[in-house]
Amino acid sequence: MLVNLVEILKKADENGCAVGAFNTPNLECVNAVISAAEELNVPVIISHAQLHEEVSPIAVIGPVMIQAAKSAKVPVCVHLDHCEDLDYMQRALKLGFTGVMFDGSTLAYDENVRLTKLAVEMAKKYGAGVEAELGALASREGGAENASGPVYTDPDQAVLFCRETGIDALAPSFGTAHGIYKSKPVLDLERVKTIRDLTGLPLVMHGGSGVSPDDYRRGISNGLRKINYYSYMSKAGTAAVKEMLESEDVTFFHDLALAAEKAMKDDAIKAMRIFAGL
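Structure (tokenized):
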């Protein structure tokens, strides 16, 4: 069933757990994630990142995501991830996305506030929840290095930002990075707790792939309610395809696609179990 971002995060908050948010740039990803959530009977967020527009146009994959969410046996939020263009956000909202994330983290603080407020006004007209980012991760969405390096979110500034913008969820910077980790991440989870205590909002972990189970659990206990996870799930799909090609003579592409889908589902299940405290 299709649900709003606010609704799905409220339920996670009540249960003291986190909901996984998985980028789904193709049908195999959509099927893998929703099938995993249904098997575990947990809510889930399927996301389309603006940078995936060239991989899969939102006009094509968006309706697929929404129909899959409506048909699912569990609550599913269809979310726009890392949107830096309000016109693009408008397109997602018109398609029926129930959550959006405006990313003004590379902008000056005042400009981030100004545009995030506009995003909130726009999204509320469609009944969608809004997530925003304050601070900067060590790498940008897609894995490119952040030229300025990580900028950890200041808790006091986070309070002001949340109050000024009216957002529903905040993605702070506390030591994670997008993409594949080159070394074990060192997370400032006390910063997460402080920001949660001061703002009272559900917090979001970006760059969630590759974090240890213990750090996931500590982060959740400190206020993380949404964990973005994609890179390692996608990597599992690639590994399955490589293994299949090396072990047998494959004629049809759909056999490779199904092998990737199964591997991604298995990886998503492992993550969802931790996020949901199962």
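Confidence is low (pLDDT under 50) at residues 139-149. The chain has one domain: 5-276.
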